[in-house]
Amino acid sequence: MTWDFLRVTGIPTEACVPYTAGGGQEGACPSKCTGSGSFVKYHCADRKNPTTAAAIQSELVAGGPVEGAFTVYNDFFNYKSGVYVANTSSGVAGGHAIKIIGYGVDSVSGLNYWLCHNSWGTSWGDSGLFKIKAGTCGIEQQVFACTPGTVSSPSEFFQ
User: Fold this and answer.
1) H-type alpha helices, 49-92
2) CATH assignment of 2-157?
């Protein structure tokens, strides 16, 4: 469903249509670019489901950010910085979709992590970003990627 939409219709950049939801409220669906960016629409030519750390890292290097999801524990809401390691005794809050934008090894803890962009705005976490310990919360089992393509005509998207 979502991947079919990305393949057939495509989506504009965040610069063109900035994220406006938050605080439990959905953002409006605009009929034109509302941000400062120029119109570029991204399409997916295919759908990939990398399930190992090496495959996810390869997708990040080859095509940029990937979509991910993970199990959220109640302590996640208080994340500020560092590598998030879930306190599983805090209880499961639910699932959450995020954008995985990178990976690394933390210089302080030595932990392997995924660098993720959250949709809760820049006042949450580390300016809207967080690091999550690799191999936790089911994150490697819920990653989706595609080979991107672009179109520069808003008439196809805004109808």
Assistant:
1) 53-63
2) 3.90.70.10
